[in-house]
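---------- Forwarded message ----------

FYI, see the Pyridoxal phosphate-dependent decarboxylase family protein record below. Original note from H. follows.
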Amino acid sequence: MHPTLAADLDQLPELLQSVRDFAARELSGLGERPVATAAKAPDAGPLPVAGVGAQGALERFAERWEPGFSGSAGPRYLGFVTGGATPAALTGDWLTGAYDQNGSSGGGSTADALERETLDWLRELFGLGEAHRGAFVSGATMSNTVGLAVAREWLGERRGVSVSREGVAALGPVHVLSGSPHSSVTKALSFLGVGRDRLRPVPLLGGAREAVDVGRLAEALEALDGEPAVVVANAGTVNTVDFDDLRAIAALKERYDFWLHVDAAFGAFAALSPAHAPLVDGLDAADSICVDLHKWLNVPYDAAVQFTRRQDLQVRVFHNESPYLGVPTGTPAFLHLTPENSRRLRALATWFSLTAYGREGHAEIVERCVALARRLGEGISAVPGLRLSAPVHLNVVCFTLADDPTPERLEALAGAVAGSGEAFLTPTVLHGTPALRAAFSNWRTTEADTDRVRDALARAVRGLSTAGGV
C-alpha cells in the first residue's frame, strides 16, 4: 500500500474527526455566510504527484476553494427551488459514503430493501396507491426522462412496436401536449430521440395563470383523431407554483387515449399540508410521476424519485441484458429500472430524514415555507418600485419592477441583492415580462431571514434608482 494511503488508514478516526469539526464550523456559520460570492476562482494547479494525504487535502481545500463556495445550503438562498440538508439527511448522506453500497441490486446487501421501504414511505407520503412503483434517480430532469421513456414505450405498445428493440424511428409521429412544461421536459424529449419540436403547447387559463386550459387540451386530443398521445401535466410550475387540474385531465382518459405524466418536482409536497393537498388531487391517476427530493424534502444533492404504474414497460426500456446480471423477474433490481447500472444509495439520506422527522416534521417545513413566501409577497407589495407578477400560490414569489421591467434592469436588481451577500434570486420571464423568483424550500429559513431578503430588495431598488439603473 502506498505509504500516504497507509498513513491515512492508520489515522482514519482522527481524520474523520477533523473533517467533522471542519464541517461543524462551516454549518454553524451558515446563516451569516454570504449567500452568493463573487470571489475569483484560484488558478488551476498541477496534478499532484506524491499527494499530501487527507489532512493536507482538507487544508488545501480550506485555503484555496472554501472561500468561493456559496451559502446555497443556507436560509436565504432562494434561487431555483433549492432545499438544504436536514441534520438527519446529512447524517444519512455521510453514511452513504462510508458504507459505499452499490444500490443497483441486492448483491449480498439489504441496501435495495432499504430503498424499497423508503419508496413505500414516499408513495404513502404523496397519496399514491399500490399500483405505483418507484426508483431513485439523480434529479427531476432524470425523473422526467425516465417517465417519458416509459411513455415512449407505451406509445410503441399502442402501435404494435417495441421502441426499446426497434428504435424510435419505428414509432412514427409522436404527440406530446402540455401547458407550461419545465425545460427538463423538452431536454428529455431531445435525449429520448422524440425531438423538442414534438411538444405542442396547449393554451393556458387566462390572467397570470400557468395552468393548462383543460377544455383546450380536450380539443387538442380530439384533433388527434384517435392517435395515442402523451400529456405532461404540472403539479407546481416553476414561476408561480400553479397546478393543472389533475383530476379533470385524468377524466379525459374516458374519451381519449393518452399517457399522463405529471411533473410534480416540488409541488407533490403540497400533499403534506391539509390546506394545500387539494392542489394534487388526482395525482394518483398519473401513469408516471416526477418528484425531486433535494428540493422540499431537504436531502442533499442529488436525489429524486420516479414513479410509474407500468413497471413492466420500464423494465423493457432499461433492463440490462447480460449473463452475469440475469433476467429481471419478480421484483426487478434497480439496475433494470433506471439508466444507471452503478448508483449510490441515494435512498439512505431520505430514509434518515423521514425516520427522524416523519410526516409531521416535513409537513411543518412545507407549511412554514408557504407562510414565509406569503410574508415576502406582502413585503414586496409594500416596497416602492416592485410589484408581484402573480399571487403567491404556494412557496414561490414571482415579482418584477413596477416600471419598465427590462431584462437588464432585473439582472441589475438580482446582481445587487446577490452582491450584498444577503440573498440569491433567479430570473425568469412570466407571460413575456422579465421577473425574479424567490423560492422557499429550505428547512432553516425563518421570518427574520425573510425580512432580511425584503430589506435587501428594498435597498437594492433604492440604490439602483439613485444610480439610474431602475
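H. also flagged this: The domain at 101-343 is CATH 3.40.640.10 (Aspartate Aminotransferase; domain 2).
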